[in-house]
């Protein structure tokens, strides 16, 4: 079956509530391709590697978490940006991108999906008093040694994480996928035993050590692979479409 591009985009916008979320980039349809969609290719970032793979897969639409047109970037269509846009336009492929809406969503969001992957029970937002904070709080079924949990992360994500180990077993966790390491102090205030993010900053080490909590940096790309897959699956079910997730490995 095929679905009209506008119909698919409207449903994705509605489902994610993207119009209500302030962001650093436009969410939704970023590049318009052919008017009918039968095959979706999803991936984390709209890199050239993903676009080339989407062409080979005969995609009508590419769905990503990291798209284009970020605030503060050079708006000129030259170099890498020209080559990427040329690929989409030459092959009449649409680009559909959701950044913060795909971090925040309670079902298909990156944070909710990471919890499912790691068997974490979601209890609520990382900071209920501040809706701008994206992360979540949750718990494990049983207390675990930090090294054992780090091994679980490695097995699930296929990437060795950076572990800063606290002195206690972990049960209560806070997390924010991608570049959410700056929320570690909010997590400490919430009383977590472990905070997980994709990346780490220099000061993250000191916050974890001096507050005696564990910290895991599991990779920006690795922690944000699951939301876009879940959204692609949702749209594929909703409109009886084909959906293929293509992972272009990124060690960051």
UniProtKB/TrEMBL annotation:
Pfam families: DUF34_NIF3. Gene3D superfamilies: NIF3 (NGG1p interacting factor 3)-like. Keywords: Metal-binding. The keyword Thylakoid does not apply. Coiled coil: none annotated. GO terms for cellular component: cytoplasm. Transmembrane segments: none annotated. The keyword Metal-binding applies. Belongs to the GTP cyclohydrolase I type 2/NIF3 family. PANTHER family: GTP CYCLOHYDROLASE 1 TYPE 2 HOMOLOG (PTHR13799:SF14), NGG1 INTERACTING FACTOR 3 (PTHR13799). This is GTP cyclohydrolase 1 type 2 homolog.
């Amino acid at each position: 079956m095929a679905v009209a591009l506008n119909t698919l985009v409207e449903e994705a916008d509605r489902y994610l509530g993207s119009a209500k979320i302030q962001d650093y980039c436009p969410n939704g349809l970023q590049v318009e391709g052919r008017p009918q969609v039968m095959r979706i290719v999803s991936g984390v970032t709209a890199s050239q590697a993903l676009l080339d793979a989407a062409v080979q897969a005969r995609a009508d639409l590419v769905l990503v978490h990291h798209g284009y047109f970020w605030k503060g970037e050079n708006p000129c269509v030259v170099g890498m940006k020209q080559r990427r846009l040329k690929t989409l336009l030459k092959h009449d492929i649409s680009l559909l991108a959701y950044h913060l809406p795909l971090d925040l969503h309670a079902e298909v969001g990156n944070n909710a999906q990471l919890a499912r992957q790691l068997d974490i029970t979601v209890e609520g937002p990382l900071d209920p008093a501040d809706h701008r904070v994206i992360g979540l709080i949750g718990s494990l079924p049983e207390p675990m040694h930090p090294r054992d949990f780090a091994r679980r992360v490695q097995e699930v994500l296929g990437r060795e994480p950076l572990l800063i180990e606290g002195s206690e077993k972990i049960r209560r966790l806070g997390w924010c996928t991608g570049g959410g390491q700056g929320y570690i102090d909010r997590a400490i205030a919430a009383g977590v035993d472990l905070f997980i993010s994709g990346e780490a900053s220099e000061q993250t080490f000191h916050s974890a050590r001096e507050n005696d909590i564990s910290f895991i940096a599991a990779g920006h790309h690795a922690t944000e692979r699951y939301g876009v897959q879940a959204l692609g699956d949702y749209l594929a079910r909703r409109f009886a479409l084909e959906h293929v997730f293509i992972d272009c490995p990124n060690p960051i």
